[in-house]
Amino acid sequence: MARTRTLPLLLATCTIGLVAGVEAATTDIHHGAGTNAGAHTRAGRLRLPMPGEFNVLMIVLDDLGTDKLRMYGVDAGLPAHCLSPQINGIPTPNLDQLRADGVMFSRCYSNPTCSPTRAAFMTGRYGLRTGMGHAVNPSDSPGYELPTGETCLPELVRDVNSFSYRRAAFGKWHLTDYDINDCHPAASGFERFEGIMGNPTSHYDWRKVTSVGGGIAGCTSTSSADVPGVEDLTPSTDFWDASVTRDDAVTWIGGLAGSDRFFAYVCFSPPHAPFEVPPYSTLSAGTKARLSFNGYEAGDRARSGEADDEKLIYHSNIEAVDHEIGELLAGIAPAVLARTMVVVVGDNGTVATMISDAALVGHGKRTLYELGTRVPLIVKGPLVTTAGGTCRSLVGAVDLWRTVAEMTGLRSAEIDAAMGGSPVDSESFLIGIQNPSSALVRTTAYSEAFSNDTPPILNFGYRRGITDGSFRYMRNYADGGGLSENLFHTAADPCEYTDLLAPPHVLTLAEAAALAALQAAMNSI
After folding, report:
1. Crossing angle of helices 400-407/114-123, nearest 10°?
2. What is the distance between the alpha carbons of residues 156 and 154, in angstroms, rounded to a whole number?
3. How far apart are CA 414 and CA 525, in angstroms?
């Protein structure tokens, strides 16, 4: 799927001084492996970790956009944010504490569905290069999987880093066929995986996979039904997949030697559908009271036709996952946590039917609008120098690949050399963690959707979106070869109600210039 590209217009450079008071190794920020080497300029200097200096704990939130988190309503940065009216009813004290102790990135953008974003996390490459353009579904026959020839993040950490990192993944994988390749996480570089291969049909009754491998010896895999005979058991944290994921991660981290450093990839499945009431022990008194008043117990789904109840249950799952994040962090020894970079990121925007504003239901997950692609990103750890800081520069989900690799002590030159000239789309945002007011390298963020393993140029369902943080441009190749385009001035119209390319509107000079720049940036990818 890889193709040659010219110098991307979406990359820019800036000069940033040393972060005040921070010593040790410094280097220039990544310029882009797919960029003409002669065009490289010094982008800035920052303190880079030494190999083996820090652990990395990467936590992935599922189907949770920024519109559902109060912190993004309070300080979303420009452009103004389009919020759900019920946002203030979801307690997330642990995410709030991470935000208070760390740095919130207010403009992080993903793909509109799960699998393509997770593939971007793992490869640092857009879906048009990996073939992953849509969520892997259980009905796919055969199911598409992220090619094992890609250089995945745990492989990069394993094979290039001079310090030997332990590597494990927990929870939802969603990068391969549901039932065929349980060893796919091991083939991607994780020495241990415990979780579910795709989306569950129930968060209490699901097929758990445990696989061990990641080396020359290959993989040993076992699986089991986590809750046999669930009808006879009371739903609880013993079986709820988010609790099991948290417990597995805590157990693995706790079993490591004191001299070990680790990269742990922890992916919670809720609040993704099915929307079931989580264990009451994970919820606040107020949420439990509302659920109980409406006649719901743990494991229940909303009664038919009760849309408000379904939203309440969805929101309760956000609260419950926040509880599990708190339990995960509390379960790590303080001395270990003190040298751990914690990264929390979403995989796509809020489920469309869970958006509280009825006028915006068509703007959620699976779409290229702000509400479909703008996701939470919070980083806490020893590299943070401004607790409670907000970085308002653009970040792409694809950028996690390079940034996490750098957190383990890798240098951009080493990363680029390991790719052997293959196009890389990932840009580091490490300087934004150390100095949130810094302008990052990225000047546009790109999202896309297409049928898996179909060359986009031949795919009439190919949808592309790009934003510069002020304007959003979307391009859709429809069946039969037709092309439709949309342009929104997000800074002035944060909910993206008004398509500037729809008659009778006539573009102003500024709007026309923004359109031309975004079209050129998209064409260069």
Report:
1. 40
2. 5
3. 23
Q: How far, in Å, are 30, 375, 483 from residue 395 at the CA level? A: 14, 10, 28
| Candidate from 6-10, 220-224, 228-232 with smallest mean pLDDT | 6-10
Instruction: Return d(Cα 439, Cα 135) in angstroms, integer.
Output: 32
| Amino acid sitting at position 2 | A
State the Cα–Cα distance between residues 369 and 447, nearest whole angstrom. Answer: 10
Is the whole model's pTM more than 0.85, yes or no?
Answer: yes
Q: Would you mind telling me the total number of residues written for the chain in this entry?
A: 525
Give pLDDT tens digits for 244-269.
999 999 999 999 999 999 999 999 99
Q: How far apart are alpha carbons 77 and 104 in whole angstroms?
A: 10
Distance CA 122, CA 194 (A): 17
Cβ atoms of 234 and 300 closer than 8 Å: no
Distance in angstroms (rounded) separating the CA atoms of residues 197 and 136: 10
Task: Quote the CA–CA distance of 433 and 48 in Å, as a whole number.
Answer: 11
Task: Please list, in sequence order, all residues whose beta carbon lies within 8 angstroms of the beta carbon of residue 395, skipping any fewer than 6 positions away.
Answer: 105, 107, 108, 109, 377, 429, 432, 440, 442, 445
Q: Are 391 and 105 in contact (CB under 8 A)?
A: yes
Question: What is the model's pLDDT at position 2?
Answer: 35
Q: How many helices (H) and strands (E) does the chain have?
A: 15, 17
Binning the chain into helix, strand and coil, the percentages to the nearest 5 are 30, 20, 50
Non-local CB neighbours of 205 within 8 Å, separated by 6+ positions: 225, 226, 227, 230, 239
Residue 141 burial by CB count (10 A; 0-12/13-18/19+): exposed, middle or buried?
exposed
What is the Cα 292 distance to its own chain's centre?
A: 33
Q: What is the pLDDT of residues 472-499, one digit of tens each?
A: 999 998 776 688 999 999 999 999 999 9
Three-state secondary structure call for residue 101: helix
What pLDDT is recorded for position 361? 87
Closest by CA position to 490, among listed 391, 368, 358: 368
Q: Considering only CA atoms, which of 68, 57, 91 is closest in space to residue 282?
A: 91
Share of the chain above pLDDT 90, in %: 73
Q: How far apart are CA 164 and CA 162, in angstroms?
A: 7
18 token code pair: 């040393």
